[in-house]
Amino acid sequence: MSSEIRQLQPQVLWNKFADLNAVPRASKKEARVIEFMKDFGMRLGLETIEDAVGNVIIKKPATKGMEHKATVVMQSHLDMVHQKNNDTDFDFDTQGIEMYVDGDWVRAKGTTLGADNGLGVATIMAILESTDIPHPAIEALFTIDEETGMTGAMGLEGGLLQGSILLNLDTEEDDEIGVGCAGGIDVTATRAYTEEDTPEFKIGYTITVRGLQGGHSGMQIHEGLGNANKIMNRLLFDGFENFGLRISEIDGGGLRNAIPRESKAVVAIDVAREDTFVSKMKSQAEVIKTELKVMEPDLDILVTKCDTPKSIMDLGVQEGFTRALYAAFNGVYRMSADIPGLVETSNNIAKVLVKEGEIKVACLTRSSVESAKTDLANTLRATFELTGCEVEFSGDYPGWTPNMDSAILKVMTALYQDLNGEKPHVAACHAGLECGILGQNYPDMDMISFGPNIKGAHSPDERAQISSVQKYWRFVLEILKHIPENS
User: Fold this and answer.
1) What CA–CA distance (Å, rounded) separates 356 from 350?
2) How far apart are CA 71 and CA 94, in angstroms?
3) Is residue 249 part of a domain?
4) In 3D, which of 364, 369, 418, 422 has the Cα closest to residue 398?
5) What is the mean pLDDT of residues 353-371?
6) Domain span at residue 25?
């Protein structure tokens, strides 16, 4: 209930988060949240700008006595990942997020919460609306479409902002100060195939992979989480090798930046081999569940009879496609040689769609090293081209190179230690942040990323820690007090 959320501390932040979460805001469908943010800025009497691509900029003068401080750009993205459980009845286009308190955590009922990056947006809104929080001149930058291409950051023109320091509020560990991130590129393989009439001696079955945790395809790619598309292809491959299984349809995964949680395939098998097929597939399912039992305790694989599909995929295409998907790399490709524990390069096979004579496989390849990103993307390209697919690269965005001599980094490191009695973890991350892109048009801007604890982002298990939000809010207020003077 949003009334329960509105009573949490700090109330000014949670109230803004509740207001924001009442507005549908899927990536590439941000019209309503853009108007919401513009109305907010104009209602406060602040200079409010919508740029050519839909980013919103709200400018607030410094409070009394802070005029000599450097202007700060506070930045978060307006869009959120829309994901829900299959058994959740929810329309993201018309409904606001339904939140509730679970101990020290705020969750959503069967959907993503939108804490990524809604808590950052709410933080900036609270600062803009405040009358008693000391701060330098602020340029609030609310970007669009961060989750599916970063087109807002890419479209932001140079010269719109005068700030010399940027605080990106899109990190998900409250003891971390982010100083770098990976770049990314979308890899999409497509091909047409001929549909064949299903022979009369075949019957239909549905194979369903569900119950995986899913999660952020950058921040959690190293955790060993199951990928529904790879699991499904393993089952289909084995079914074809052993029982002549033929594919009619596949629908697995969703957004590129979410590790796929579910996949469903409609197949046809020989009626004479039905009992053996069902027995062996269930046995194989148990093998896979045993392999993943530690990380994916709720994995469920169902093999159920259905109406016989009218058509199936051309046999030659099916053989090549399932082999290509088996060979296509998924997960951590290389760890960083420069930063211990950091994933350097990875790929997420995010979406597999086979239907009505068309194949589409959507991947997101990430790396903090541009040449390695290109190398892995070309590896995927070659894999799919060998089976007759056309492969397109799109949405290429750069990484963010760490600057360990950053002035605001030194300020924030000292403040964090004073507030918490321990040093923060200064790190680059494997997620895609907008700092690298924004730095192309604002190369002299000193940038830092931080935020509260958010777990399970990009999945219906997303949750934000209440005590961590309180810790983070205190940190934000101290940072604003201690911004360096204009140089």
Assistant:
1) 20
2) 37
3) yes
4) 369
5) 96
6) 2-181+399-481
Give yes or no: residues 265 and 117 share one domain: no
Across the beta sheet with 72-77, the strand order is 47-50, 56-60, 138-143, 72-77, 165-168, 446-449, 176-181, 425-429
Residue 51: phi and psi, rounded to 5, are -85, -175
Beta-carbon contacts of 437 under 8 Å, excluding residues fewer than 6 positions away, are: 150, 153, 154, 397, 398
Tell me how far apart the alpha carbons of residues 335 and 345 are, in angstroms, rounded to a whole number. 7
Q: Could you tell me the two tokens for 335?
A: 């760890």
Within this chain, do residues 149 and 229 fall inside the same structural domain, yes or no? no
Q: Does 256 fall in a domain?
A: yes
Alpha-carbon distances, residue 395 vs 91, 189, 348, 416, 464 (angstroms): 27, 14, 15, 35, 29
pTM reported for the whole predicted model? 0.78
333 Cβ partners below 8 Å, 6+ apart? 344, 345, 346, 347, 367, 372, 376
Which residue type, as a one-letter code, is found at position 29? K
Q: Which of 311, 335, 350 lies at the terminal end of a domain, its last residue?
A: 350
On whether residue 340 sits in a domain, the answer given is yes
Rg (C-alpha) for the chain, rounded Å, is 24
Helix axes 31-43, 115-129, angle to 10 degrees: 20
- Return d(Cα 430, Cα 449) in angstroms, integer: 13
Q: How far apart are the first and last CA of the chain?
A: 47
- 112 domain-assigned: yes
Q: Indicate if 19 and 131 belong to the same structural domain.
A: yes
- Please answer whether residues 434 and 447 qualify as being in contact, where contact means their C-beta atoms are separated by less than 8 angstroms: no
Can you give the CATH number for the domain in which 230 is found? Answer: 3.30.70.360
Q: What is the pLDDT of residues 195-217, one digit of tens each?
A: 999 999 999 999 999 999 998 99
Neighbours of 245 (CB within 10 A): 26
CA 179-180-182 angle, to 5 degrees, is 160
Catalytic positions: 79, 146
- DSSP structural state of residue 273: G
- For residue 371, report the phi and psi dihedrals to the nearest 5 degrees: -65, -35
> Can you tell me whether residue 267 is helix, strand or coil?
strand
Cβ(458)–Cβ(216) below 8 Å: yes
Task: Name the H helices within 88-133.
Answer: 115-129
Same domain, 50 and 123: yes
- Quick one: pLDDT band at residue 432, thresholds 50, 70, 90? confident
Is the pLDDT score of 170 beyond 90? yes
* pLDDT value of residue 38: 98
Contact 11, 18 (CB under 8 A): no
β strands within 202-262, DSSP E? 202-210, 215-216, 246-253, 258-259
